[in-house]
Inverse folding.
């Protein structure tokens, strides 16, 4: 997945003149992300669920689409769009939730809009993508209800990039699975 056209492209960007890092620098940042407690926990939970996370499971690449990373049988982190460790950590966490969902579900079908929407809802909710300070940095200022509004906005971006989901189907799928998927915090006891 080195392009935004992949059906399960994940983390989107808020580019502000961002030039990114070299693949080598990004790969070093990925290695440092493995020390993040949430990353460690998610990787342990995948292993416990029977899904091996090998040495090349997370890798830095140069991306052509405007995405920060993605998941397709492995995680890609777009070195050319990320500059700081926190950005890499966020991408790795978001994409690990997709990987965990696929591991746990066994029959997750990325061409099914509802399946894709559910994993995006979970990744947005459980990764901290929509934390108030992140939204503030993106220029979205809302005191009440910002998290769910942010998740909904960010869920639709990758769904619109999924060739199997029309705009209407994407919105309908998100709304149909919202309550179940938003409240599903596995493998966490509650949203971190």
């Amino acid at each position: 997945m080195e392009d935004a056209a992949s059906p399960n492209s994940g983390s989107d960007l808020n580019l502000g003149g961002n030039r990114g890092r070299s693949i080598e620098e990004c790969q070093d940042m990925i290695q440092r992300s493995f020390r993040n407690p949430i990353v460690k926990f998610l990787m342990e939970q995948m292993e416990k669920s029977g899904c091996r996370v090998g040495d090349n499971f997370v890798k830095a690449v140069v991306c052509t689409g405007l995405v920060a990373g993605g998941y397709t049988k492995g995680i890609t982190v777009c070195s050319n769009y990320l500059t700081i460790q926190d950005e890499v950590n966020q991408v790795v966490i978001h994409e690990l939730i997709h990987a965990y969902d696929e591991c746990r579900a066994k029959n997750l079908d990325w061409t099914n809009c509802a399946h894709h929407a559910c994993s995006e809802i979970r990744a947005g909710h459980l990764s901290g993508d929509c934390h108030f300070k992140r939204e503030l940095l993106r220029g979205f200022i809302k005191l009440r209800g910002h998290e769910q509004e942010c998740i909904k906005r960010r869920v639709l971006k990758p769904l619109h990039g999924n060739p199997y989901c029309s705009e209407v189907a994407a919105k309908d799928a998100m709304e149909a699975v919202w309550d179940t998927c938003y409240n599903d915090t596995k493998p966490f006891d509650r949203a971190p």
Observations:
- The chain is about 50% helix and 5% strand.
- The CA atoms of residues 130 and 147 lie 5 Å apart.
- The longest strand covers residues 58-61.
